[in-house]
Amino acid sequence: xxxxILHKNIIQQLIAAKQSNRKLFVVLIDxxxxxxxxxxxxxxxxxxxxxxxxFVGGSLMVSDSMDRCLETIRSKSHIPSVxxxxxxxxxxxxxxxxxxxxxxxxxxxxxxxxxxxxxxxxLMRSCVEVMPTGYMLIDGGAPTTVxxxxxxxxxxxxxxxxxxxxxxxxxxxGLKLIYxxxxxxxxxxxxxxxxxxxxxAIELPxxxxxxxxxxxxxxxxxxxxxxxxxxxxQLEENAELVFEMARAVHSLNYA
Length: 255
Ligand code: 1GP
Known about the structure:
The chain is of the alpha/beta class. It is built from 10 helices and 8 strands. It has an 8-stranded parallel barrel, surrounded by 7 helices.
């Protein structure tokens, strides 16, 4: 029986999972895109597929759907929900934890420190667990919403040494997680070679997402050294795929 990720001290559990080489599968839910029926469907399926975490967020937040989405997750499943904010207003007390993102692949001061200053007083009072995360955008073959909104260039996909040095800087700065993201709906996922290079260079748990469409791609990223694999878009298209995706990632835990 596989241990569940519990709702408290999530960062400690992620570090422990990394240390024991236990791979985790994460479903990304964009509250703006998820219709009520579809949301319930993916939550129920994720629960049955033993998904480890939900990330909740989107680059554009055009409705007040965040709280409703988090309430639905809480009422329908035991899977913890982690905010993956596309902007500083995406905060909610109904989440278990927050990826406190510094866009370390970019040179936009607002996304390196400015937004953190604005949100820090609120977060210090909040019950939501704050997880400092070095966020690295990797070129996925075409401009993405994140690179447009953040006004930053992604790290070129054929420059693993830049990714490596960036992740090293993140670790030295005291960040707790590294997220390598090709961006939602990317043409190409983060290359396995780049994941492997970053894995060799740092101790921190590594999250990889963006453009993962098949269980094989998910397993390949995990085998290359990712500790958490995130899939969003493809599960919006076909929620049933969550079973195979989760199995592909978790299968490495029994190898
Ligand atoms: C995007 O890493 C996530 O920030 C997931 O990407 O929607 O392409 O699966 P997809």
